[in-house]
Write a structure and sequence with these properties.
homodimer, alpha+beta, 6 helices, 58% helix, globular, DNA-binding
Chain lengths: 100, 100
DNA sequence: AAATCATATCTATATTTTTCGATATGTCGA
DNA sequence: TCGACATATCGAAAAATATAGATATGATTT
């Protein structure tokens, strides 16, 4: 976990929102069509609709968040689901506590 | 305290280091000439020497950190001392805990 | 009052980030 | 296998950030 890289992700309102939304998928997104749970997170299309930005922008965001380790993608057929990576988020906290 | 603004500060290695150094001024900086304590923090020149960047860059950094509320400046004669603003740093933690 | 010192601000350039439309890739259904 | 669909990647333009040198400001000293 790299503090600067994670901080870059967090220095954008939409990306912070995505992490927030993914904390409670049931409350923030409609149910998926292929599966009846959010165990693997939420598909890109739903996140895009909620954020109101272009498909390519959201995909780029999710990619940078994945690079930073903050989210984990899972393919289900033609959809990619993204969920939070709680371990890395926790690691960010504890490192900040040390460093800051 | 604005999460995005603070995160922008933290998305730069040198600025993170400055916050780290200011946590233990005695360990990271030589004593000041005019006062024998670090109660108001550390003067810009010392921070600049330690960071190895230009005076204007460090001044700009410190200004952005102050805008974000992370540090507090105090004038002592011709020197400006900067110290951490622990309240805002704590607020950042707790907001992150909620949000993330 | 002038010279000096510490810091802040201004101006400019290089780099990075943001964001999109277009296109490519991979998957499913007909 | 072809077309439709979801997502990823590419290429580009605009905006923001990084960084420095030059200059301004404010304080101290002589």
């Amino acid at each position: 976990m790299n503090v600067v890289e994670v901080s870059k992700v967090l220095s954008n309102e939409t990306r912070v929102n995505i992490l927030k939304w993914l904390k409670e998928p049931e409350a923030n997104f409609p149910p998926h069509q292929d599966i009846d749970h959010f165990d693997d997170g939420v598909c890109v299309g739903y996140i895009q609709d909620k954020a109101g930005l272009s498909q390519s922008t959201i995909s780029t965001y999710l990619n940078s968040m994945q690079q930073a380790g903050l989210v984990i993608p899972t393919r289900h057929g033609k959809w990619t689901y993204y969920r939070r990576n709680e371990e890395v988020i926790e690691a960010y906290y504890s490192t900040l506590k040390e460093v800051l």
